[in-house]
Amino acid sequence: MTRVWKWNRPVTVREVLEDLQRERSIAYTTVMTVLDNLHQKGWVRREAEGRAYRYEAVSTRAAYAAALMNDAWSQSDNPAAALVAFFGMMSDEQRQALRDAVRIVQGPDRQREDREAAQEENPGSVADADGR
Fold it and tell me: Which of 54, 57, 85, 132 allows an S-S link to 10, with CB 3.0 to 4.6 Å?
């Protein structure tokens, strides 16, 4: 998938093969099988071009990562514990990115409501621009 995302356009097995062979030896049939598997799983779409196919990502890399995380989380017998363990593995930068993402998902109305609720709970406090 990394190679398909890299070009951000439909690619052939031959293009992916040539790119990968710059780093290591790999067989054409291996690349073809992997791209076919990705197609079967719905991660790439393909369109015939002569005797070959051009493959294109169905979703962005971010959406792919989110789907993997969601799948792993939903398979846990204790999702809360899985999240706590996951958050514990995060760097400070990753935790800040998570906080930023939550703010974006909540939207401005929710952020305003959270600030107002915090001020009602502690009327003497002064919240900064981010409501902290």
Answer: 54
- Which tokens is 3 given? 């190679």
HEC string for the chain: CHHHHHHCCCEEHHHHHHHHHCCCCCCHHHHHHHHHHHHHCCCEEEEEECCEEEEEECCCHHHHHHHHHHHHHHCCCCHHHHHHHHHHHCCHHHHHHHHHHHHHHHHHHHHHHHHHHHHHHCCCCCCCCCCC
Q: Is the pTM of this model over 0.85?
A: no
pLDDT per residue over 71-121, tens digit each? 888 899 998 999 899 999 999 999 999 999 998 988 877 666 666 776 777
